[in-house]
Structure to design on (212 residues):
């Protein structure tokens, strides 16, 4: 994986690609935004390891590697921005969107549960949904269609973006440090991200779950 994306992860364009992918996957959940974030973080781990080894051997410093701080800022910022765009579009969606939501049991249920959670002063469902496949889309559209206020939604969206970004970057970086910056380490990190998504989807589907 790292070999095929080597030229991209060694270029400043990686931040633009990650940001665009994270921003748009609220509308296109099939985009591999999590995989891109993990791959970039794994490349950063590979670079830091190689630099340390090169210093010990008084060798040349390798090519530029992604900055974890910039990577996290791009991913988290794009996550919140994408949520807000979907939220505002759903807010202004009109009767057509409301009818589409009414035809989807998943969207209707999520809208009801999210409304109850936000009204009660809690929105942990927003954070959990960020990890679930398409959960971010369901929650952002549901909150907008239910005409929740930005003040209710934005803090939880920001927390969700930071939590998801920190988890994804941590998987890629520490996976690269501990398992080696190879396709094996990246693959295991991606599997861990999918496992978190599966657990989040299970929690969201539980009718008895009462987020606070």
């Amino acid at each position: 994986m790292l070999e095929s994306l080597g030229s991209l992860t060694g270029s400043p364009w990686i931040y633009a690609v990650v940001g665009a992918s994270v921003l748009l996957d609220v509308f296109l959940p099939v985009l591999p935004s999590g995989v891109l974030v993990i791959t970039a973080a794994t490349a950063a781990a590979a670079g830091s390891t190689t630099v340390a080894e090169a210093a010990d051997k008084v060798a040349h410093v390798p090519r530029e590697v992604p900055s974890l701080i910039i990577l996290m800022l791009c991913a988290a910022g794009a996550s919140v921005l994408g949520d807000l765009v979907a939220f505002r579009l759903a807010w202004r969606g009109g009767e057509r969107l409301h009818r589409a939501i009414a035809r989807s049991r998943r969207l209707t249920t999520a809208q009801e549960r999210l409304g109850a959670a936000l009204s009660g002063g809690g929105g942990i469902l927003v954070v959990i949904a960020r990890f679930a496949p398409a959960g971010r889309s369901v929650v952002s559209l549901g909150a907008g269609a239910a005409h929740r206020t930005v003040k209710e939604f934005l803090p939880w969206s920001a927390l969700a973006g930071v939590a998801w970004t920190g988890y994804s970057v941590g998987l890629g970086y520490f996976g690269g440090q501990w398992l080696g910056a190879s396709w094996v380490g990246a693959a295991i990190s991606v599997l861990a991200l999918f496992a978190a998504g599966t657990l989040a989807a299970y929690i969201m589907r539980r009718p008895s779950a009462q987020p606070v």
